[in-house]
Amino acid sequence: EGGTSPRVFVYSVDPLQLLYTLSDVAELEVADMAFSRCGSRLYVLSRATAKKLTVFSMATGLRLNGCELTLPMRFDKISVSNCHKDHVALIRNASVRIVTFQKSFQTYIGRVHPASLPTDVDLSISAYAWSGFHFLVATRQGNLCTLCGHTGVILHVCHTEKPITGMTVTLAGLLTSHVGSRLRLWARNEQSLPRQGLVGVKLAGAPAMESSKAYSLQQAIDTPLPGEDTLGVLGIVAHVQATPDLGAAMLTTSEGELWQVNLPEPEEDAEPRAPKVTLESLQPRRCAWFHTQPVSDVIL
Predict the structure, then answer these.
(1) pTM of the full predicted structure?
(2) Nearest to 133 by CA among 80, 209, 170, 212
(3) What is the pLDDT of residue 134?
């Protein structure tokens, strides 16, 4: 709902019916909302005029005690950990803050951790995703930062030849889309990541993603996906989101297209650099085209 003091309406899907009407979630504007993976919580982010994060129980429709946090700045997006609903990332154009909640008797203690990314460099966030207890952040300058999901400190930094425009975690690894509609599938070696945060992190001059110990390239696709008119994808792939069963992914483009591709399954004893995936194995299918209003995000 728009206007002053907007309300949030929560519906069940089957049957379709109104469950809760949530009020006093924002003074002027709700920036973003997200459910926990288990569906037991709803996180609401407001950015005008008050800047706050509020967490609701979906069992009762009520605020959780201690889960209404005043934020130090405006944030635009929420991303909830797929492993732990008490770990949340807040994102704005050039900043990320990890927020954690800890149960204490009948209430929760919420903590907004310090900014994760350096503030003395020019950067812009282009994509992000949770991978276990790590939060991955890509920038339009070509960097990929791995953050600790508990504290937000930077554990690893690498650089890609083409900036990442979207990414999602699959059964086979990390799927990334890059400028030029390139898709890459990476195996992640979490054992190589340090347990302590890096000191004096410098994003410039970071090692290439292909040569880092944390990632190894498994599969690559350089050919643009074919459209029904054989012209390929229109624009660049702007967002990638895996389906809940991780069997497929939805891709949105800057020109308003919505694509579906099959995701490869993990292979036993796969070589560090497996042969390229064919377009036939992905079975790309254009589902829709919103040519007047491009899709900016997809939630499955």
Answers:
(1) 0.86
(2) 80
(3) 93
Tokens of 144: 């990929």
Quote the CA–CA distance of 134 and 207 in Å, as a whole number. Answer: 19
Of 130, 140, 144, nearest in space to 206 by CA: 144
CA dist., res. 68 & res. 108, Å (int): 10
Q: How far is CA 27 from CA 32, 47, 50, 112, 212, in A?
A: 14, 9, 6, 21, 46
pLDDT tens column, 25-82: 888 889 999 999 899 999 999 988 889 999 999 999 999 999 999 999 999 999 999 8
- Give the pLDDT band of residue 198 (cuts 50, 70, 90): confident
Q: Whole-angstrom Cα distance, residue 197 to residue 210? A: 22
Specify the residue for token string 């389906």: 243
Strand 29-35 vs strand 17-22: parallel, antiparallel, or unpaired?
unpaired
Q: What is the pLDDT of residue 293?
A: 61
Q: CB atoms < 10 A from the CB of 224, how many?
A: 16
C-alpha closest to that of 272 among 190, 189, 192: 189
Tell me the β-bridge partners of 37. Answer: none
The candidate with the shortest Cα–Cα distance to 225, out of 239, 241, 237, is 237
Task: Find out whether 79 and 43 touch, Cβ atoms under 8 Å.
Answer: no
Residue written as token pair 């890609």: 160
Q: What angle do CA 71, 81, 22 make, to 5 degrees?
A: 55
Q: Any residues with CB less than 8 A from the CB of 110 and at least 6 apart, and which?
A: 53, 66, 67, 69, 99, 100, 101
Give the single-character DSSP code of 54. E
Is the separation of the CB atoms in 217 and 186 below 8 Å?
Answer: yes
- For position 275, what pLDDT does the model report? 42
Contact, 65 vs 108, CB < 8 A? yes
d(CA 239, CA 200): 31
- Give me the residues paired with residue 10 across strands: 20
